[in-house]
Amino acid sequence: METFTAVLHKEEDMYVAECPEVGTFSQGKNINEAIKNLTEATKLYLEEFPLKKKVKPLMTTFEVG
Fold first, then answer.
1. Which strands sit side by side in the sheet containing 24-28, from one edge to the other?
2. Separation of alpha carbons 25 and 12, rounded Å
3. CA 57, 15, 30, 4: dihedral to nearest 10 degrees?
4. What pLDDT is attached to residue 52?
5. Secondary structure (3-state) at 18
6. Which residue ranges of the chain lie beneath pLDDT 70?
């Protein structure tokens, strides 16, 4: 079992979830559903396109203005 990152944001009445390590996206009506759907999308993607190397994204914050 591997651990991946989920980045979520809300768009109107849905949550959009992205896995930056793989490039998969999904959505759900709540955070749990979005992560569940992202997990399934990522699993299916990795079955077809296995990762060649493990790379964790560098995440930080920045200010504008």
1. 7-11, 14-19, 24-28
2. 17
3. -10
4. 85
5. strand
6. none
Residue 1 lies in a domain: no
Q: What is the domain extent for residue 25?
A: 7-48
What is the reported pLDDT for 56?
76
Q: Can you give the pLDDT at residue 38? A: 98
CB atoms closer than 10 angstroms to residue 26: 20
The structural domain count of the chain equals 1
Who's near 1: CB < 8 A, 6+ residues apart? none
* Beta-carbon count within 10 A of 14 CB: 14
